[in-house]
Design a protein that fits this description.
heterotrimer, B: 95 residues, mainly alpha, 79% helix, C: 105 residues, 3 helices, elongated
Chain lengths: 161, 95, 105
């Protein structure tokens, strides 16, 4: 019974979150935490939202590696965009283009679209199946994204989902 | 030092407000409001450190989520179907 | 050691504040809505990230740092979602983008 296991995992995760956020470990507060955890799990079950995607435990080594790579990209393009904001002589050349994502799962495509938006200089404007409409601040940033390194990396990290 | 950082954040909020007032379209105003939300979260967190009251962090944590939901809510009111994919909005007259 | 930590934390905070200001200036200066989205991204990612990192260094190993990490985590997920929803709503609302037609090379 997969659903029960997912529900129990969700409950454990929520209770751990309560413990981390409260910081007071008196019996009354622990009881309140248990009650609210059970209430949330009950509501989630009644709303029929319990499935695989509810698993909060997606922190695996390859995901962390991808985040580190994404962080480096974010810092690089932040500096680029900041220079263009501060220095009016540096040109901007806004462009809109479509991009094909090759991820197999929906979660993989969401990760890709969110990563594109997270990196300054590119924003996913629209998602239609595997076709993304992307707005980029300059032609160079757009060309960089079209080279598809991020697409490849998301495809790799998608395998553990 | 905390005072220096929080004054910079206040200046940034003021600049954002100028865009929110001037912004030609509604979307510019919502964008400015969204940015001011982010800045407010950081301001509240710094205020917690400045006054030595870590409870402020809980408020900041909740404010992250509220400002996200409020952005989506404004878009929903103005433009039913925002936040869903374009195909499902075009395809059917749900809503 | 404490000295190094303090210097690191203050440079993170000041750097973050500078990026926040740059993002706000970009929102004011850029010519149209879609380019302003990129300026907000600067604010949301590196500006907020550096300020939170600076506060984490001040907090040390405690529940305070856990809360700041959680805030950072939520921001990294909600920020792009909100920006994407705005961009999509603007596109559906037929807001025209200023596009540079000139192709490089």
């Amino acid at each position: 019974m997969g659903k029960l296991r997912h529900a129990i995992n969700l409950g454990l995760f929520l209770f751990a979150l309560w413990l981390l956020l409260s910081g007071h470990y008196t019996p009354l507060l622990l009881l309140l935490g248990t009650v609210s955890t059970l209430l949330v799990v009950l509501l989630t079950t009644r709303a029929d939202l319990i499935d695989r995607e509810i698993q909060p435990v997606l922190i695996k080594p390859s995901v962390l590696l991808y985040w580190a790579w994404l962080g480096r990209e974010i810092v690089k393009s932040n500096i680029d965009v900041s220079r263009r904001i501060l220095n009016p002589t540096l040109p901007i050349s806004p462009t809109i283009f479509t991009l094909r994502a090759t991820q197999k799962t929906e979660l993989g495509r969401v990760t890709y679209a969110n990563s594109i938006t997270l990196v300054p200089g590119t924003v996913t404007v629209d998602v239609e199946e595997d076709l993304f409409t992307v707005h980029a601040l300059t032609q160079e940033i757009a060309a960089d994204l079209k080279r598809g390194e991020m697409n490849r990396r998301v495809c790799e990290v998608e395998k553990v989902f | 030092m905390f005072i220096a950082v929080s004054s910079v954040i206040l200046i940034a909020i003021a600049v954002g407000l100028v865009r929110a007032i001037r912004g030609p379209s509604l979307y510019d105003r919502v964008l400015a409001a969204n940015m001011i939300g982010t800045l407010t979260v950081l301001m509240v967190a710094i205020l917690g450190f400045m006054t030595g009251r870590p409870e402020f962090l809980d408020i900041a944590l909740v404010y992250v989520l509220i400002s996200f939901v409020s952005t989506l809510a404004v878009l929903r009111v103005h433009n039913p179907g925002a936040g869903t994919t374009a195909s499902s909005v075009k395809g059917s007259g749900e809503q | 050691m404490d000295m190094v930590l303090a210097v690191l934390s203050w440079s993170c905070l000041l750097g973050g504040a500078i990026f926040l200001l740059i993002g706000a200036l970009g929102v004011l200066r850029f010519p149209d809505f879609y380019t302003r989205l990129h300026a907000v991204s600067v604010c949301d990612t590196l500006g907020a990230g550096l300020v939170l990192a600076g506060l984490m260094l001040q907090g040390g190993f405690s529940l305070v740092t856990v809360k700041l990490l959680l805030m950072f985590y939520f921001m990294m997920f909600t920020g792009p979602t909100a920006v994407h929803a705005l961009a999509q709503a603007a596109m559906q609302g037929k807001l025209q983008a200023v596009v540079d037609e000139h192709e490089p090379e």
